[in-house]
Write a structure and sequence with these properties.
two-stranded antiparallel ribbon; mainly alpha; 5 strands; elongated
């Protein structure tokens, strides 16, 4: 073939490359549609640069890519570059390095292209029509629902239409209807769930990302300070202060009944501090709350702030809460000293530690799954795993994964000493 392609061949070749990357039929890609409407963001753009540069053996820089906004403009740029390079084209692909590594590419910022008003209106209509067709095709393929006879003005209208008119179809698809639960055998349900997880996996196009974070660690009131402490190899082990418990009353240099050989710990400060009014909790109720519960409320709120989300917008949403914990010392302390608390503050035989998750869901009106998980040291990891699969299975649109562990009293120190788990000098080799 000729080294330099004709313009229409360049356009066809570029369209096929974009279609392959976007996993879309080439005929559905409008050559004059803006990249944004096709879902080509900075990450996809970097991959596109690498593919096209290799295919045509034409160097394309991020700055050059930022100057074009459509497939047609991109094809024209490649044609011009191939011509000025003396006839290089796809036949000479991979002959030399043509683009920087992906890790070196900066975030792309596309300059707006100025069009005459009439042309701009035509392009916007094309983009809207194309997006509308794509959404309809997706709905038809995914749920077997034909909406071609109805005109929608926005994605919200499509959602409202589906919920109002095709609720049962959606329920059956997600395995949530009573009929599907009653008629499906257990192995079939497991296979269906596995298929949905596979479809929803990030590798299959359903992206899951960490969007906010918050933490309280010893000597670290935030994740940035915690990271700085790690980089500086700072040790936060110190002698247990009287504000926790008096280690002198149960300390021994050798293992013995009712004694601990350790007086050291990495402790979070101010665990007794809690803004009850802010979380709309009465002082009396706050007194009976596990300090771990109070800490979780504060850090979850901060994590959602860190994500840039107005927490009030999550009220009534399917946001899930998954909390890993290990200790229930405050519960046992509460039961052993129930006479110190108001008469109406009593627990039944059920463990109140489920409140570690439920309190957060209740406080912020989060209506997704709400689970407290205790598998000892692995609790936080299991909470993250549960949050991931809740998102992948579309049980939740947003999920909070949290872990909390506070040693409040000497009891567990004494027990862990008997098992040989604690170090006399506060360090381990």
């Amino acid at each position: 073939m000729d080294a330099v392609l004709e313009n229409r061949d360049f356009l066809s070749a570029v369209r096929k490359t974009v279609a392959s990357l976007m996993k879309m039929p080439a005929e559905q890609l409008e050559a004059d549609a803006h990249f944004e409407s096709l879902g080509i963001d900075s990450i996809v753009g970097m991959e596109l640069i690498v593919r096209l540069s290799k295919e045509f053996s034409v160097p394309i820089t991020p700055a050059q890519f930022a100057q074009v906004g459509t497939i047609r403009e991109l094809a024209g740029h490649i044609e011009a570059s191939a011509g000025s390079a003396g006839g290089t084209g796809r036949a000479e692909a991979a002959a030399r390095p043509v683009s920087p590594p992906v890790s070196a590419l900066p975030k792309l910022e596309r300059r707006p292209v100025a069009y005459p008003p009439e042309r701009s209106r035509q392009l916007r209509k094309q983009q809207d029509d194309e997006r509308d067709r794509g959404v309809r095709a997706y709905i038809c393929q995914k749920y077997s629902i034909d909406s071609s006879a109805i005109r929608f003005g926005s994605i919200s209208e499509i959602v409202d239409y589906l919920v109002s008119n095709h609720y049962q179809e959606l329920r059956r698809y997600y395995g949530g209807s009573p009929e599907s639960r009653a008629s499906a055998a257990e192995p079939q349900r497991l296979v269906a769930n596995a298929e949905r997880v596979e479809e929803s996996d990030p590798a299959s196009g359903h992206d899951i990302a960490i969007v906010g974070i918050s933490c309280r660690f010893p000597d670290a009131p935030s994740h940035s300070v915690f990271w700085a402490n790690l980089m500086a190899r700072k040790s936060s082990i110190r002698e247990i202060p009287d504000s926790r418990w008096r280690w002198q009353e149960c300390y021994s240099e050798s293992i013995g009944p009712g004694k601990t050989i350790s007086r050291w710990g990495a402790l979070v400060d101010d665990i007794d501090c809690f803004d009850a009014d802010f979380f709309k909790v009465s002082p009396e109720e706050a007194q009976g709350m596990d300090p771990q519960e109070r800490l979780l409320c504060q850090e979850v709120y901060r994590a959602i702030q860190d994500a840039g989300i107005n927490i009030e917008t999550l009220a009534g949403s399917d946001t899930g809460v998954f909390v890993g914990y290990e200790y229930a010392e405050y519960e046992h302390h509460f039961r052993a000293h129930a006479d110190r608390f108001p008469e109406r503050m009593r627990y039944s035989s059920a463990s109140p530690t489920y409140y570690l998750a439920n309190r957060i869901s209740y406080a912020f009106d989060l209506c997704g799954p709400s689970e407290a998980i205790n598998v000892n040291c692995a609790a936080s990891a299991v909470a993250i795993n549960r949050a991931y699969y809740s998102l992948a299975n579309r049980e939740s649109s947003l999920a909070v994964a949290a872990g909390v562990s506070l040693n409040l009293f000497a009891g567990d120190y004494i027990a862990e000493t008997q098992y040989g788990l604690l170090s006399p000098d506060g360090t381990c080799g």
